[in-house]
Amino acid sequence: MGDKINYNQLMQRAFKTLVKDLLADIGENGLPGEHHYYITFDTRHPGVDIAPWMKEKYPDGMTVVIQEWFENLAVMEDRFTVTLNFGDVPEPMVIPFDALRAFVDPSVEFGLKFDPVPVTDTPPEPAPEPEPEPKGNAEVVSLDSFRKS
């Protein structure tokens, strides 16, 4: 573990699990009462899949509302998918939980703010395989010495 416990990192992970559990529940049972969610996310984060016009209009971040009309809400371990209505046009979206910036349920004055997750442009290179250490003295032997004449 290291010298210190990173409580902030643990809290961020717990809050994302809370959001994941809430979304999974409303995906199965719908929104209860007056609850509705404002979800703000980083549109540049890897794995975010939204329509090109949305990326152009919201190049840094976007807030969506899950309230009266949504469908195809599915929750995976690291992301969720949902189809929302934009000007009477259904738009499917994929949003990784690491892209979240905020989650708010204004009906009960509840909100969470998330720290940005650092993203590297390129995946880390795998470490090269170490060359095997020679064991003892090696000698090249000609096969000709084992052949019958």
What does this structure look like?
- The chain has 149 residues and is of the alpha+beta class.
- It has one domain: SspB-like (SH3 type barrels), CATH 2.30.30.220.
- Helix content is 19%, strand content 30%.
- It has a four-stranded antiparallel β-sheet with strand order 2-1-6-7, covered by helices on one side. It has a three-stranded antiparallel β-sheet with strand order 3-4-5.
- The longest helix has 23 residues, at 7-29.
- It starts with 6 loop residues before the first helix and ends in a 36-residue tail after the last strand.
Name the average pLDDT.
Answer: 84
According to CATH, the fold-level topology is SH3 type barrels
Q: Could you give the count of β-strands?
A: 7
Output the structural class: alpha+beta
- Principal-axes geometry comes out as globular
- Write down the domain tally: 1
Low-confidence stretches: 137-142
The fraction of residues in strands falls at 25-35%
Main sheet characteristics: 4 strands, antiparallel
Strand order of the largest sheet: 2-1-6-7
CATH architecture identity? Roll
* Distance N to C terminus: 67 Å
Q: Class in CATH?
A: Mainly Beta
Percent of residues in helices: 10-25%
By CATH's scheme, which homologous superfamily applies? SspB-like
User: Can you count the helices?
Assistant: 2
**H/E element string?**
HEHEEEEEE
Q: State Rg.
A: 26 Å
